[in-house]
Amino acid sequence: MIALSFQQVEAFIAQMSMDKKVQLFYQLAKDITPLLGIEKTAGICGGSACIIRTRIPVWTLVSFKKLGIQDANLLMAYPNLRQQDLNNAWGYYEANKQEIDYDIKENNDLKHLQSEFTILF
What we know:
The chain has 7 helices and 2 strands, in the order H-H-E-E-H-H-H-H-H. By secondary structure, it is mainly alpha-helical. The protein has a two-stranded antiparallel sheet.
């Protein structure tokens, strides 16, 4: 791995063609997108990754998805969520499967969630 200073990286990017800058931009966006809209706060939901502005853990939404619950139904059950929140949760899960699967196992909540969701609808 080559260690470059931020100034060296800036200088290198300045010399790139526009096509290469666009490719770099999309790669960077792809790498950080799963982290957007998700936060971890000590003392909130056990420190689990949650949708920003809420106390809804990513593992809860992923659990519902694993049960076959569609996004539209999740949005009805959680009216304060937007489709982008769900997209962020799915992206976070893809980037952090081990963490979220561990949270699901720790909370052992699939059966409880299934019955809870059935009550909601």
